[in-house]
C-alpha cells in the first residue's frame, strides 16, 4: 500500500527532465496496458492512444504549442506575464514520444450504461485512463508531461482522428534523469498547492469566506 502512495506523491508533470533516451518497449506496453484497464462508464473504454515518434510531427506540434503559448502570454500583464515567461510548458521534442489520447463517444454503442444523464461521463473515463498511465509511468521511472496548449482541430488533423474523436491530451512520455519534488508551477511562483482542509466539506457544501 505504501508503494501506491509513494507513486502518487512522486508523480510530477515533467517538462525539463527528459533525457531523450528511448523508452523501454516492455515498460511502455505495461504503462499503456495500465491505461487500458481504467474504469469507464458502461465499460465503454472510449479511449484511443496514438504513439507519435516522428521528429517532423513532434516539431510541428511544438511549433503549434509555441504559438498558443504566445496567445496565452498575450492575455497576461505585470507580475503574471513575468512569472509565466519563466515557465516551460512542454517537453514535446525532448521526450521523443507523444501519446495522444482521444475520446470516441461512439465506443460502446448507442446505449452506454450510465451515460444517459451525464454525457461528460465518457470524457471522465478517458481522464481515468490518463491518470492510470501517469501513475504507471511514474512507477516505471518515466516522466509524463500533459500538454494542453493546442487547438483541438489542429491536433485532430495532425494525428488523423476522425471528426467524432476528440483529442483530450498530448502526453510527453520519456526517460527522465529524476522527477522534481516540487511542481514547476509552485517552484516558479505561479500557484501553490492548497491544503486539503480548504476543499473538504462535511455533509453539505460550505462556502468559504
Ligand atoms: C488537464 C491538464 C492539462 C495540463 N496542461 C499542461 C500544459 O499544457 N503544460 C504544462 O506544462 N503542464 C500542464 N499540466 C500540468 C499541470 O501544470 C500540473 O499538473 C500542475 O502544475 C501540478 O503539478 P504536478 O502535476 O507536478 O503535481 C496540465 C495538467 C492537467 C491535469
From TrEMBL:
GO terms for molecular function: 5,6-dimethylbenzimidazole synthase activity. Keywords: Flavoprotein, FMN, Oxidoreductase. InterPro entries: BluB, Nitroreductase, Nitroreductase-like, Nitroreductase/BluB. The keyword Flavoprotein applies. Its EC number is 1.13.11.79. It is an enzyme of class 1 (oxidoreductase). The keyword Oxidoreductase applies. Residues 8-174 form the Nitroreductase domain. PANTHER family: IODOTYROSINE DEIODINASE 1, NADPH NITROREDUCTASE. This is 5,6-dimethylbenzimidazole synthase. The gene is bluB.
